[in-house]
Amino acid sequence: MVRDRHVIEALGKAEVVIENGEIVSIAEPLIDYCPIFGKYHKIEHITKEDIRKNIQYRIDDFGMCTKNRVLKMDDMLSVGISEILRSNVELGNIDCVVGACEGAGTVLMTDPDLVQGVGGRVSGLVSTTPIPEIISVIGEDNVLNPETAELNQLEGLKLAVEKGYKNIAITIIPCEMVHEIREYPVPSDVNVYIFVAHTTGTSKQLVESLFEDADIITACASKEVIDMANVKKPYYYGSSVPIFAITDEGKRFLDDRLSHINKSLSVKDYPLDLSKMSKPLK
Fold first, then answer.
1. How far is CA 162 from CA 14, 146, 158, 190, in A?
2. At what angle do helices 81-90 and 248-260 cross, to 10 degrees?
């Protein structure tokens, strides 16, 4: 009998299923090369065996998808979504992050190290089931639904508003809910900022909507995001996996992170150089 089940999309955007702490299935990756895994793990051509080794490393190293999950961590990258959020929570620009954590579902976070630990070490979370030990560390009051580990960022926003937070960041993967979040009527003294990650394979129509609604979007290996950026020309940082600041608020968050770690600020150099990016773009 399955006690717990967690579905994530990992390197190459391959779907991985973990049950009771064991990898039970790995789908074929969509892309062949990711510059992040090329740089940090020396993976030149992503295979299912590479994915298995990487996921097993995450399970062994910090307890991903298990009761042994380490939730508070240091930076993993110089500039990723979780790192941008971590700095801006620390600086006081954001007072709550609505994120997603395996074993807990949609969660509210105010601790910069928790923001980093939850978001920086796990790829796109598709579905999950409750792990009491993880929920206990985050706090039941900060979990949207401790009984089911529901993933619903719009409901997470509503909970954050109910709790009185004023500057709320939402992390979310590409979906129609992004527009619902942007259109949700919050009190006049509440600001909502949308950070979209895990964009590989996103349709052109949805990407067009994301560029209307989001504050920050990661390129990942998305051809449509790269193409849209070349048209819209937003500020960004990074050459291999650019992070685009779509709004003025997004640029402020990006630049505050860069200043925080003494990096040069975001740029607006176009066209983008595809030679350093993931292959193939999807």
1. 36, 17, 6, 11
2. 80
The residues, any chain, with a CB within 8 Å of residue 116's CB and separated by 6 or more, are 72, 73, 74, 75, 76, 82, 83, 85, 86
Phi, psi of 124 (to 5 degrees): -55, 125
Cα–Cα distance, 18 to 21 (Å, whole number) = 6
φ and ψ of 233, to 5 deg: 55, 55
What is the rounded CA–CA span in Å between residue 3 and residue 148? Answer: 13
- Nearest of 93, 112, 123 to residue 10 by alpha carbon: 123
Alpha-carbon gap, residue 246 to 236, rounded angstroms: 8
Please report, in tens digits, the pLDDT of each residue of the chain (282 residues total): 457 999 999 888 999 999 999 999 999 999 999 988 888 788 889 999 999 999 999 999 999 999 999 999 987 778 999 999 999 999 999 999 999 999 999 999 999 999 999 998 888 999 999 999 999 999 999 999 999 999 999 999 999 999 999 999 999 999 999 999 999 999 999 999 999 999 999 999 999 999 999 999 999 999 999 999 999 999 999 999 999 999 999 999 999 999 999 999 999 999 999 999 999 999
- How many angstroms separate the first and last alpha carbons of the chain? 37
